[in-house]
Amino acid sequence: MTDVGVGRPAVFDPFEDGFVDDPYDQYARLREGDPVHHSALLHGWVVTRFDDVNKLLRDRSVSSEITKATPNPLTIMELERLAERSRASETIVLLDDPDHARVRKLMSEPFRPSEIERLRQRVSDRIEGALDQLRAERGTGVIELDLVADFAYPLPVEIFSEMLGVPDEDHARFRYLSQQVAKTVDPVMSAAERDECMNALDEMHEYLTAQAAAKRAEPADDLMSELVHAADDDGVSFTDSELIAQLVTLYLAGHEPVASLLGAGTLALLRHPDQLAKVQADPSLIRNLVHELLRYDGPNHFMRRITTHPTVIGDVELPAGEVIYASPAAANRDPARWGDTADQVVVDRAEAHQHLQFGAGVHACLGSHLARLQAEIAFEALLTRLDDPQLAGTPSWDGRLFIRGLDSLPIRCSIRERAS
Ligand code: HEM
Predict the structure, then answer these.
(1) Count of H helices and E strands in the chain?
(2) Most exposed: 74, 131, 371, 379, by fewest CB within 10 Å?
(3) Confidence bin at 185 (pLDDT 50/70/90)
(4) Which of these ranges, 147-151, 184-188, 204-208, has the smallest mean pLDDT?
(5) Measured in angstroms, how far is the CA atom of residue 387 from the centroid of ligand 1?
(6) Smallest CA separation from ligand 1 atom 31, residue
(7) Residue of the nearest CA to atom 30 in ligand 1?
(8) Domain annotation for the chain: domains and CATH numbers
């Protein structure tokens, strides 16, 4: 045993002092002291070691369907909400095979690496354009900006809205809606928050239903048209409600984590100036940098699974129907996997790409290439165009449990002109 978190218990407690700013100390205690930990708060098992999380995600016998859980207060609440809005339960994220495989196949084509690569120039234009605009508005001297509000947060939703074919004038509304809808992922929230989220979900459904109908009538060269017309070998397409559930999922799955990665990744680099200098000196490291930033402080903290038969995790045997919260964030800091430098950013870490931020197994992130493309272009732009970036205040974390990110990241810098 090391002296990690001496005197503090190995208990999952998101209300513990300091957890919002830095949950990793608590994760370390759990990994060492109780790696398959029963959480009374979550009514489930928090799993934190790399090997256990990795194995669980690849285990095809564990389920993503909440109906397979032995009822507990949280699952009952979620099932009640899903019953009120049954269409949400059709999301790919909550499906098991054979429905999962069918829906995933219909969605896969536009997310293949070669298809995503075709977006490079458009994504780059958006990102460089956002920096041009900040420079034009704030001036060419030293300025203060909030890297989250001014850059990281608006960009992914705009890029994805453009890819989907949502008109430019609706992007701002969509940013708000996807922010609200993304909160539905957290199991712990007040009734008022829940209502606001659900209203946003309704509005998003209505809007996307109308858009899908328009693309069905008049296809365009965009993702929505492609998904509306996607069909399997037997010519079977999505049902209407299935399609909308996937579109909402794409917003939800795509927006927040990319924004979080840009914010938390920038903070990590500012806190590791030697590593920042290293990647500035050698831009060929950017691809690896993105993996390493995902490993070090990626947005995904928990993924939920349900056991469908007695399942051994570490030293614990769980019966069927148990809810498991597997933590890629904790696994990605496990010294048993990453060695003594697990808690540091190492931009040229050889195996950084083996992190678990994109999940693993049949549900592994469908948008990982798109996410990485955006992050690579964004970090490259930030590294070349922000002159002498410094922290200009205290970063503020959003306090969310599942997809964690920064609410604000004040920095001071000047913005260089775009390279011609
Ligand atoms: C840094 C950014 C991202 C991270 C860290 C991330 C992470 C993840 C993870 C961990 C899962 C697996 C969830 C599970 O097993 O229960 C997942 C699934 C998914 N992600 Fe991402 N994601 C990111 C960006 C994106 C983007 C940009 C898109 C598309 C616009 C996307 C679309 C999806 C979809 C559709 C799934 C469901 C796949 C399935 O259930 O088969 N993600 N993502």
Answers:
(1) 17, 11
(2) 74
(3) low
(4) 184-188
(5) 33
(6) 367
(7) 254
(8) 24-415 (1.10.630.10)
